[in-house]
């Protein structure tokens, strides 16, 4: 697998690149935002490891431009455990984050988890579309529409929403969401909460869309229509449980 590593500290760049190569990744290096965008276009890496504190263009600006172009998975590196910076990175479409200083093994583990999940996502694209009232979910192209109006989510947000939508009206446990979306044990519940918060806002749940994502403390999350409608999966005729019926998935 090909990794684009973007880090302006030459010592940390060398150490991290060496460690990732020992983990059998092909590593391409960049030291600023402009180089990163050029290498992304030329080399088409499988994943981007992006330091947020970059010269010329900071990491958040680079992340936004990456997301304007494609859905390449991105792990951000931050020198501070700054919640606002991390929240901003997730809102722009980051898939995961690692706080400096970090163990190379931890970074490699998170990279592999995301790449596994990306490979699984490719297989999931063959799943049938979902129609939930006026809401249409199309896994093939990761598209969500409400009464024909397209709603945009990042790839990570779409995976979360798709799993919830497949179990409309039922609770999906936090552990299952973490394993499904991030693919490794001990995923970050705070990151999950952040993504769900952004999804509620982007999808305008409760205002434009007559639906809601309800958090069940200590258990998980449930997606349901606010008027008790049902979901139908195209192609296999599967009808979901009524939205107000509670069950643990």
Can you describe this structure?
- With 249 residues, the protein is of the alpha/beta class.
- It has 2 domains: 2-123, 3-Layer(aba) Sandwich (Rossmann fold); 127-239, Arc Repressor Mutant, subunit A, CATH 1.10.10.10.
- The protein has helices at 10-22, 33-43, 59-69, 83-91, 104-124, 155-166, 174-182, 189-202; strands spanning 2-6, 26-30, 47-51, 74-78, 96-99, 130-132, 135-138, 143-146, 149-151, 171-173, 211-216, 220-225, 231-233, 238-239.
- Strand 4, helix 4 and strand 5 (96-99) form a beta-alpha-beta unit.
- 37% of the residues are buried.
Keywords, separated by commas or semicolons:
40% helix; disordered C terminus; alpha/beta; 249 residues; five-stranded parallel sheet; 8 helices; Arc Repressor Mutant, subunit A
What is the subunit arrangement here?
single chain
Q: What is the name of the CATH superfamily of the largest domain?
A: Response regulator
Radius of gyration: 19 Å
Enter the CATH topology name of the largest domain. Answer: Rossmann fold
Note the beta-strand portion: 15-25%
Summarize the main sheet. Answer: 6 strands, antiparallel
Categorize the overall geometry: elongated
SSE order, one letter for each helix or strand: EHEHEHEHEHEEEEHEHHEEEE
Q: What is the total number of structural domains?
A: 2
Helix percentage: 40-55%
Query: How confident is the prediction overall: mean pLDDT?
Result: 81
Distance between the termini: 34 Å
Please give the number of β-strands. Answer: 14
Count of helical segments? 8
CATH class of the largest domain equals Alpha Beta
CATH architecture call of the largest domain: 3-Layer(aba) Sandwich
Strand order of the largest sheet: 9-8-7-6-13-14
The structural class is: alpha/beta
pLDDT < 50 runs, ≥5 residues = 228-249
């Amino acid at each position: 697998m090909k990794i684009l590593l973007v880090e302006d500290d030459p010592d940390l760049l060398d150490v991290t690149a060496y460690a990732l190569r020992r983990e059998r990744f092909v590593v391409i290096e960049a030291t600023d935002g402009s180089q990163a965008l050029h290498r992304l276009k030329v080399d088409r890496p499988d994943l981007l490891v992006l330091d947020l504190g970059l010269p010329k263009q900071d990491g958040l600006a680079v992340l936004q431009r990456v997301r304007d172009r494609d859905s390449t998975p991105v792990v951000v590196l931050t020198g501070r455990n700054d919640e606002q910076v991390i929240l901003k990175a997730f809102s722009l479409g980051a898939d995961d984050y690692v706080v400096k200083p970090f163990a190379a093994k931890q970074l490699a583990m998170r990279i592999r988890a995301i790449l596994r999940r990306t490979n699984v996502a490719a297989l999931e694209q063959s799943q049938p579309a979902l129609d939930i009232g006026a809401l249409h979910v199309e896994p093939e192209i990761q598209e969500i529409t409400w009464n024909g109006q397209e709603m945009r989510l990042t790839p990570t947000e779409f995976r979360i929403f798709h799993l919830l939508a497949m179990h409309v009206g039922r609770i999906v446990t936090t552990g299952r969401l973490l394993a499904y979306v991030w693919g490794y044990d001990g995923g970050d519940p705070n990151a999950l909460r952040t993504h769900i918060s952004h999804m509620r806002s982007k999808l305008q749940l409760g205002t434009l869309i007559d639906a809601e994502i309800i958090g069940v403390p200590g258990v998980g999350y449930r997606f349901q229509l606010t008027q008790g409608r049902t979901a139908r999966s195209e192609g296999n005729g599967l009808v979901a449980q009524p939205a107000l019926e509670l069950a643990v998935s």
